[in-house]
Design goal:
Helix content is 64%, strand content 0%. It is mostly helical and 313 residues long.
Length: 313
Amino acid sequence: MSNPFTIDSEESNPFADQNTGSRWAPPSHNSGYSRADEPPVSNYTPAQTYGAPPAQSYGGYGAGAPTNGQKSLAEREAELNRREAMLNKREEQVEKKEAMMEGYNPPNFPPCKPLVYHDIEKDIPEEGKWLVKRLYYAWIFSVFIYLLNAITSFILLTSKAESAGGNFGAALIMFVAITPVSFVFWYQPLYNGVKRQRSVQFFLFQFNYFCHIGLSGMLAAGIPGWGGAGIIYCISQIGSNVGVGVMCALCSAGFIWNVVYGLWQVKAVRSYYQSRGMNAEEAKQQAITGVAQSNFGREVIKTAVKTTVASQV
């Protein structure tokens, strides 16, 4: 039995040259082969022999040319960068303008929602701080009394007192409205008058503060339906409802204190600005100048000039 893994002859060798029938032999040095037959190395590139592989793209992440989506994304990114640069430039310009504004201070009052700048220690001269602090505490006390008056008026409503519904509505409106109005119309004029030493501010304060004193006197009386839980309500309630009568008495006392303390402060303010040479004539000139320099004053002057010229033509 013959071995199937034994090659018996050259004819049974599958790797033998079928054309010549002889084994392969390396070429000899005399076979006529020369390196001149090879292509020059400088001209050799893989693309010449095998051809360059085609560029492929796998879901838009390949090395091929950018697609429309890639171009659109790049354009959007460039636009966002351009807008961001513009915003940064504008912010720098705003910061420079704010730095150039002399005496600019950010709002810090009231603390819950800052609307105006208020700093007695920083803004007010040393010789005027005592006066501004007095009126500032007077304003805070007035706000407290208006709140107490509104609460007492509501209690009168629950007690079914005379005209208690209209009285409570008026008291609530006064508390909500007069709190900011009093700050703007009589406290701030005094604040700015002492800060800038302007006569017109002191006279504006005096006029508005007298209105505040008159209103406090009316509310202290406690006329039913007028918004004040004062003396009249106190007398009517003290016999039937002692607690409500006591609260009405507190409201009356608070409003009377506003009147007395207010008259005292008017006298102190007058002494303050008169001691610095301020008077009504100077206040009048400052008021005229201020109105003329305002936008409203300029429009009035333009209209007057146009009317005069048209009448002459």
